[in-house]
Amino acid sequence: MTTIVLMPGNASLTDWRAIWRGAVPSLDPSCRPRIVASADAVARIVARGEPVYGINTGFGKLASVRIPAADLETLQRNIVLSHAAGTGEPMPVAVARLMMALKLASLAQGASGVRPETVALLEAMLAKDVVPVVPAQGSVGASGDLAPLSHMTAAMIGVGEVFHAGKRMTAGEGLAAAGLSPVTLGAKEGLALLNGTQFSTAYALAALFEAEMLFRSALVTGALSTDAAKGSDAPFDHRIHALRHHRGQIETAETLRLLMEGSAIRESHRVGDERVQDPYCLRCQPQVMGAALDVLRKAADTLATEANGVTDNPLIFAEDDTALSGGNFHAEPVAFAADMIALAVCEIGSLAERRIAMLVDPALSGLPAFLTPRPGLNSGFMIPQVTAAALVSENKQRAYPASVDSIPTSANQEDHVSMAAHGARRLLGMVENASAVIGIELLAAAQGCDFHAPLASSQPLEAARALLRAQVPHLEDDRHFHPDMEVSNALVRSGALIDAVSAVELPGVEA
């Protein structure tokens, strides 16, 4: 299994993507002195006996309640147990692992007051595949993702459940099976573990990585649809896009040109085609998809920054034993990033659905109705287009910005919240919907190109067609359509479609 060495505060999107895909994070040893210094500072603060929020006081609205030194361990245990109040289905294991890794990197920056042994347990749980069962609902994205992170922390003290070796079991059983022991939380540690934006950020990052694959796949199917409809590549001429200056648009146009370069189908209608302009779903791909790419890159920049931040409260500054209470736990940046991803995913799917609708309409595509050689007797691609329309409509409903909502909590102490948690949590489902649309487009575009035989498309697009045709034959007469869709969707979701056109470098979210 691949290991990623995490440098807290300086991890890359490539690192987080690898962890999302299953790599095991390991902390760079250079961070240990900062962790020790931070924990020592908390010990000195406790010894002074002064009231400091989160260390020897109550929490939230109860911050004015002073807690005796003898009760500080109980205080930290109580906050974990009382805040572990999530509901709903468990978050996917891959997302939970990413959340744990984000929390690990945050604590290891030495501003949270957590002891080395507590950090080491979290790191060991990741290494030995002990992943807390975390109900996915219950966070409003400020004062951090309290409920889900509390469930994560509860597992560390032996409470609740975990997944280990593919099985669900009690936290105590899971830790023991991995040769680990629960930790007894010291002063500040419970609050440091459950306060922060790691739940929201993990979901948003996971969706970003999947949306990047969706975007790249949609470029391939968009180019294939253009060829299937005998569309023009003139709208992808670099001179058009250079005049507008948007980076995403310029790169998208260049990619579409390269994907179609050398297509005999395209060459066949350069002379004598009476159409002056293609529909927007073909002609405006650089403008729409390029804008989506720019938005995804902005979200990526925000999330890369957030992933390297420290977002619990209060923060410990060991150089002068100061604990400063602020609001880094407020997940507004993540909420905005999640909304941006939602908008981009929605538009990628929407544009693809319009291309499918164009292909099945003989008046627009010049192809047989519903892409079947014998329409009437056969329905062909009639209902797959309806399915695509349904998925796009569902995504439109989900794309309403979560960040514009707020509801006061904690007796109005926390009177403005980000709603980043469910704003990020909806995204994977949206990407799944849009990926299914791209899968349908792959089927439809390949079918459309079949009608142009013996003319072939470009080398990259023929490679994409060959990938599909190895498992899904040309649709001559109606057959059970769902298995074809399952195969095509898997090619999109797995990244196999992108790999098939590896001769063309597809743009991504990282600069």
Automatic annotation (TrEMBL):
Its main location: cytoplasm. There is a cross-link at A142-G144 (5-imidazolinone (Ala-Gly)). Keywords: Cytoplasm, Histidine metabolism, Lyase. GO terms for cellular component: cytoplasm. It holds the Pfam family Lyase_aromatic. GO terms for biological process: L-histidine catabolic process to glutamate and formamide; L-histidine catabolic process to glutamate and formate. Pathway: Amino-acid degradation; L-histidine degradation into L-glutamate; N-formimidoyl-L-glutamate from L-histidine: step 1/3. It is found in: Cytoplasm. The modification 2,3-didehydroalanine (Ser) is found at S143. InterPro entries: Aromatic_Lyase, Fumarase/histidase_N, HutH, L-Aspartase-like, Phe/His_NH3-lyase_AS. It catalyses: L-histidine = trans-urocanate + NH4(+). GO terms for molecular function: histidine ammonia-lyase activity. PROSITE patterns: PAL_HISTIDASE (PS00488). Contains an active site 4-methylidene-imidazol-5-one (MIO), which is formed autocatalytically by cyclization and dehydration of residues Ala-Ser-Gly. Its EC number is 4.3.1.3. Belongs to the PAL/histidase family. HAMAP family: His_ammonia_lyase. This is Histidine ammonia-lyase. The lineage of its organism: Bacteria, Pseudomonadati, Pseudomonadota, Alphaproteobacteria, Hyphomicrobiales. The gene is hutH.
